[in-house]
Amino acid sequence: MVFHVLNRGVGRMRIFDGDGDYLAFERIVEETLQIRPMRICAYCLMPNHWHMVLWPEHDGDLAAFMQRLTVTHVARWQRNKHRVGEGHVYQGRFKSFPVETDDYFYQVVRYVERNPLRANLVDDLDRWRWSSFWRYRRGTASQKRLLSSWPLARPEKWKSHVEDPQTESEQAAVRRSINRGSPLGGKPWARQVAEQLNLTSTLAPRGRPRKFQPSNKARQ
Predict the structure, then answer these.
(1) pLDDT tens per residue across span 27-80
(2) What would the pLDDT profile of 184-211 be if each residue is shown by its tens digit?
(3) Which residues form the domain of 82?
(4) Do the domain assignments include residue 34?
(5) Quick check: is 205 in a domain?
(6) 148 within domain boundaries
(7) Angle, vertex CA 147, rays to CA 19 and CA 170, nearest 5
(8) Residue 21 belongs to a domain with what CATH number?
(9) Averaged pLDDT for residues 131-142
(10) For the chain, what percentages of helix, strand and coil (3-state, to nearest 5) are there?
(11) Which of 40, 90, 196, 209 has the CA that lies 20 to 30 A from 75?
């Protein structure tokens, strides 16, 4: 099963101040892969948060990989910034959301890799060094080994596909998954996965239930 995984700096604090911070995180990812194998389909590092699209092979792989990655990153970040013991780096434990491996997979990868454009950090994704988009297209053979194959074929002209704006409904679906922690996919699949992973509450309508209003006939 594929997962969209993300985390943010506490209070939306910047966790990447420059190239050195981004490079350090990518090195930690590479080190973690040597100890906790993981298929990385896509990722994007942003100034105060990051996204990954991960495809674990076995139960428990996701938690093991993310724990090793984030614990190592926090320790090195605090040491490098001379902020050991001064509080949290991340807003909390990483968030992860199951993704159906059909068009929803492409949808979430586009969302992740489009981040620098959406945030107006660059006007061409080839100029954002800190993502799977750049690494796949511009990286060396060694750099590309960080990335795994996909559960689906990579579409032709992927660059133009990613750079084209997503529809409002596509963005809303991904954001709803992020905000609610719910599976991203078709309704039957989402219900099935939610039951398997004890996430059924994430699919329930939000807000207080409507109060029952008796009809006029019932009041008589």
Answers:
(1) 999 999 999 999 999 999 999 999 999 999 999 999 999 999 999 999 999 999
(2) 999 999 999 989 888 988 888 765 545 5
(3) 2-153+161-200
(4) yes
(5) no
(6) yes
(7) 90
(8) 3.30.70.1290
(9) 96
(10) 50, 15, 40
(11) 40
Q: Number of structural domains, the chain?
A: 1
For Cα atoms 109, 114, 115, give the angle at the middle one, nearest 5 degrees: 110
Beta bridge partners of 99: 2, 184
Residue 28's identity, in one-letter code, is I
Reported residue count of the chain is 220
Does 88 fall in a domain? yes
Give the burial string for 172-209 (b: 16+ CB within 10 Å, else e).
Answer: ebbeebbeeebbbbeeebbeebbeeeebeebeeeeeee
Q: Based on DSSP, count helices (H) and strands (E) in the chain, helices before strands.
A: 10, 4
The position carrying tokens 């970040």 is 77
| CA atoms of 191 and 136, how far apart (whole Å) | 34
